[in-house]
Amino acid sequence: xxxxxxxxxxxxxxxxxxxxxxxxxxxxxxxxxxxxxxxxxxxxxxxxxxxxxxxxxxxxxxxxxxxxxxxxxxxxxxxxxxxxxxxxxxxxxxxxxxxxxxxxxxxxxxxxxxxxxxxxxxxxxxxxxxxxxxxxxxxxxxxxxxxxxxxxxxxxxxxxxxxxxxxxxxxxxxxxxxxxxxxxxxxxxxxxxxxxxxxxxxxxxxxxxxxxxxxxxxxxxxxxxxxxxxxxxxxxxxxxxxxxxxxxxxxxxxxxxxxxxxxxxxxxxxxxxxxxxxxxxxxxxxxxxxxxxxxxxxxxxxxxxxxxxxxxxxxxxxxxxxxxxxxxxxxxxxxxxxxxxxxxxxxxxxxxxxxxxxxxxxxxxxxxxxxxxxxxxxxxxxxxxxxxxxxxxxxxxxxxxxxxxxxxxxxxxxxxxxxxxxxxxxxxxxxxxxxxxxxxxxxxxxxxxxxxxxxxxxxxxxxxxxxxxxxxxxxxxxxxxxxxxxxxxxxxxxxxxxxxxxxxxxxxxxxxxxxxxxxxxxxxxxxxxxxxxxxxxxxxxxxxxxxxxxxxxxxxxxxxxxxxxxxxxxx
Length: 571
Prior knowledge:
Blueprint: H1 3-6, H2 16-24, H3 28-44, E1 50-53, E2 62-65, E3 77-82, E4 85-90, E5 104-107, H4 114-124, E6 159-164, H5 170-182, H6 184-189, H7 194-206, E7 210-214, H8 221-224, E8 226-233, E9 236-243, H9 245-254, E10 257-259, H10 261-275, E11 277-280, E12 287-292, E13 298-302, E14 310-312, H11 314-323, H12 330-344, E15 348-350, E16 355-360, H13 367-371, H14 374-377, E17 392-393, E18 400-401, E19 407-414, H15 425-430, E20 432-435, E21 447-448, E22 451-452, H16 453-467, H17 490-508, H18 513-520, E23 525-527, E24 548-550, H19 558-566
Parallel strand pairs: 6-19, 6-20, 7-16, 16-19
Antiparallel strand pairs: 1-2, 2-3, 3-4, 4-5, 8-9, 10-15, 11-12, 12-13, 13-14, 17-18, 21-22, 23-24
């Protein structure tokens, strides 16, 4: 959990004592749990006073909740760390606020979820708020009472897969999920402003805080993590190690700095290509020439008899500057870094943030082949900073690699491509699965020439589920176009059926037109008459399969659609 990011905008609440307490917690799970408790209490009971005792210099730190008077007073609740758990203690002798007279304590536990905790708090505290809403600062000389109005930050799973039939908005909702993780405050403020959300998403994408990829059958470990790459320099093939998107975003997420590196590096390459560059090593003062490769990496050539050419990749240079990662040719990297600082005003700035990797169609790739040994490292408990944190040595670069706890993976999965039951068990165990099914209620407001589109979709899906299964139903997104002005007409509806729905049904039922006719009706799928002019006398002994035609012209008639759902029990 990135506490600095979570507390953004509430720095007056998170004083040094609060931060020190959170830093003593053993895991991100405990931090999320504790922060949920605090924000839920503040949201529901904004006048309860919050204050801290103990402090950084003491052996203990408490966050105390309840009215603090000029006299000593006693808190209603207090949060503290004991052994390996985070505890929320309840005092039973404060103005009868606790219905049960016994002393109570509950520890952070997976068994206490958000709803249970909310119900527990509702039963615990009387409706009358106590105090004036003090934020956790020392009471000495502090008489400024304010309302603690915080956003409720619900914990997000580190690994999530949105799954469901086609057209249910899985890819569409990845934007919302990504913004919830990276910029929760913005998301809550603009939750219903799609243009604002998309614009913010694009900004984060441009900053490389969001990375998008799509898995397919030929996608490999070399694309995802790292692999060998060939580069042509002066007609010679030079092999280097190319980082994949997962390694890059993990390195960025591990970084605690932002920089003007991209701008500075571009200027450096342009100047080298125009004027050349010669530098000297810091320790031995030996001259080296710098060139730029066709892949915009730097080529270092020591002025020796052999003039060996060494490729210093842009990514290795960037990681050395931002993260201090020692990669290839460290002595040359130091020289170039200093040159960028002296001549191009290279700057770095401390900043922590969450990052999101979106994997579309995650089930279409060979998971074992793509993730390799990293399938273990993406587990919550194996991430950097967790109790059971692990790292591995990558096969090509031999770098030590671990997955940061501020990198969130959001995948999408089309159940029409592959059933959830067929997914790799290793993937199932490490991801939180969220089902996204068709929502015909989103279409209930659409009525076109008497056609109730919500009812139409419900009926079609009821028939598909009966003939196939629920994983191959039709998503509401197929028909959302009808909500657009000037497209809310029967011509658009006919085009959707002709170009999207009917071809998809053909794929689902392998051109079994008899079943497609059961779904769309005899008005749309018409049986062709059979002819008997075969040049054989044995025609009566042969079973001739039925043939069908699509009556495209009927798709422009309102009665065609109304007849589909008129006698459908599901609507």
